[in-house]
Amino acid sequence: MSLPIGVQVYSIRDEAEADIVGTFRKVKEMGYDGVELAGLYGHSPEYVKGVCDALELVPISAHVPILDMINEPDKTFDIYRRIGCKYIVVPYVTEERRPGGDHFFAMIDEINELGKKAREYGLILLYHNHDFEFRKVDGEYGLDILYSRIPKENLQTELDTCWVNVGGEDPAKYLLKYAGRAPVVHLKDFNMSGKLPEHLYALIGMDDDKKDDEPSTFEFRPCGHGMQDMPAIIDASVKAGAEWVIVEQDEPSMGLSRLDCVKTSIEYLKSFEW
After folding, report:
1. Sign of the C-alpha dihedral computed for residues 241, 246, 129 and 53 taken in this order
2. How far apart are CA 148 and CA 39, in angstroms?
3. CA-based nearest residue to 52, from 7, 3, 1, 109
4. Which of 76, 151, 235, 241 is 20 to 30 A from 208, comparing alpha carbons?
5. What is the mean pLDDT of the segment spanning 219-244?
6. What pLDDT is recorded for position 2?
7. Taking residues 166-180, what's their average pLDDT?
8. Could you tell me which CATH class the domain 5-194+221-269 is placed in?
9. CA gap 134, 193 in Å, rounded
10. pTM summary value
């Protein structure tokens, strides 16, 4: 029995910005069961919910900037409650909130409080990692410190399997480490030759002022078309108790459009027994 498959709308953000209805219809036709939101593209929560309901797509979760949650928690959580999301996700944090940063431990306290507030709105807070959470503080990964200091009921994982790999860990083994706390898993493939680019986040639009002079040897790939052991990751997702797997590809590759990339991913995921 396979897990339901969602797509992170950030993967197809240009298309969703231009035509959310047509874009969501295309991903439904590809075989996706749900979407993970990354903004509402100027629409009301009720409109987005209506689009998902009409197309029978589950609004699984939403990536929401942590400062939106901190500055306007009630307004922010209410928006995604109205859409029908089950999960709300801290998607990315800036340098001062990363392991070793001045605000790292204060952020842990902030996230714990946000998790409590999310529960008041019937939402479950997740944390989506990159590779920088695998910096160590006093010999322990920042990501592990985060999960050890916040109780499960206030924070669960959305492990991004690409960034776990880039961070130096085996994604399948790391998923099993958080079995029972990993309801949503990001399936993301990549290819790389040589060393990582110095300014890796320029590749995802988070570090635009620091692009490398040399062409990057790192690129995101559709699932099954890169370096990831995707069968092992999927098997671990099932064993860890995941409810959803979500395809995310920050930038297209292989000469494909964004939509073609997510189509290629789901074709691969539906091609074998889980």
Report:
1. negative
2. 30
3. 7
4. 76
5. 97
6. 80
7. 97
8. alpha beta
9. 21
10. 0.94
DSSP letters, the chain, are: -PPPEEEEGGGGHHHHHH-HHHHHHHHHHHT--EEEES--TT--HHHHHHHHHHHT-EEEEEE--HHHHHHSHHHHHHHHHHHT-SEEEE----GGGSTTSTTHHHHHHHHHHHHHHHHHTT-EEEEE--SGGGSEETTEEHHHHHHHHS-TTT-EEEEEHHHHHHTTS-HHHHHHHTTTS-SEEEE-EEEE-SSPPTTGGGGGTS-TT---SSPPSEEEE-TTSSSS-HHHHHHHHHHTT-SEEEE--SS--TT--HHHHHHHHHHHHTSS--
Question: What are the pLDDT digits (tens) for 20-53?
Answer: 999 999 999 999 999 999 999 999 999 999 999 9
Round to whole Å and give the CA distance between 193 and 246.
26
Cα 170 to the chain's mean position, in Å?
A: 17
Partners of 18 in the β-ladder: none
Average pLDDT over residues 89-93: 98
Residue 75 has pLDDT above 90, yes or no: yes
